[in-house]
Amino acid sequence: MASFASPFRSTYRYLQRQAHENPVIFYSCIIGAIGPVMVVAIPPIRERFGYQPAEMVPTTYPLPNRPRRPVVGYEDQ
Questions:
Q1: Cα(29)–Cα(15) distance, rounded to whole angstroms?
Q2: What's residue 52's pLDDT?
Q3: Using CB atoms within 10 A as the burial measure, which of 17, 52, 61, 70 is most buried?
Q4: Burial letters for 21-54: b for 16+ Cβ neighbours within 10 Å, e otherwise?
Q5: How far apart are the first and last CA of the chain?
Q6: Contact of 26 with 18, CB cutoff 8 Å
Q7: pTM of the model
Q8: What span, in angstroms and rounded, lies between the C-alpha atoms of 42 and 51?
Q9: Cα separation values, 29 from 11, 15, 26, 53, 68, Å
Q10: Rounded distance, CA 29 to CA 23, Å?
């Protein structure tokens, strides 16, 4: 049984040493590893709390419901 836990124990010691000697690199890797997990875990949690996505922003300008009159001159007179 001791041979089974040995790699995990040495890995834990290595991570402890890295966290102490190179904390910026260590915690950057931890935060980077959490990112993909959050992509999968956060949307169901948001839906459970009742999040409703905002309606889409219009991509065109609505045309008025009237006949168009032709432009004549500068129309400033």
A1: 11
A2: 92
A3: 17
A4: eeeeebeeeeeeeeeeeeeeeeeeeeeeeeeeee
A5: 97
A6: yes
A7: 0.50
A8: 11
A9: 15, 11, 5, 31, 61
A10: 10
Structural contact between residues 26 and 19, judged by C-beta atoms closer than 8 angstroms? yes
**6: Cβ–Cβ under 8 A, 6 or more apart, which residues?**
none
> pLDDT by residue (tens digit) across 25-77?
999 999 999 999 999 999 999 999 999 989 998 888 888 888 888 777 776 65
- The token duo for 68 is 């168009």
Annotate 30-64 with DSSP letters as a single string: HHHHHHHHHHHHHHHHHHHTT--PPPPPPSSPPPP
pLDDT at 75: 62
pLDDT of residue 77: 56
CA distance linking residue 31 with residue 25, whole number of Å: 10
